[in-house]
Amino acid sequence: MILLFCNIFSFSQTESEENFFNSYLLFKKAEINIYQKNYKQASEQCEQAFEIANYYSTTDLYIATICAALSQDTNKMFSYMEMTLKRGILFSRYEENPAFVSYIDLPQWQELKNNQQNYYLHYEASINKEYKHILDSLDKEDQRVRKKLKGSFWTAVLPKSKMSKKNIKSLQYVDSSAMAIFYKYYDKYGYPYEGNIGKPDISKSPLGYIFLYHHYGNSAFIDKQRQAVLDGKMPLYQYEFKLRYIRLAKNETLSLKTPSTPLDTLLTAFTIHWEFYKDEQSRQLINDVRKAINYLSVEEEQKLRQEYKEDIVYYQFYNPWGWSKLGNKK
Question: Considering all CA atoms of the chain, what is the largest pairwise distance in Å, rounded to the nearest integer?
Answer without folding.
Answer: 66
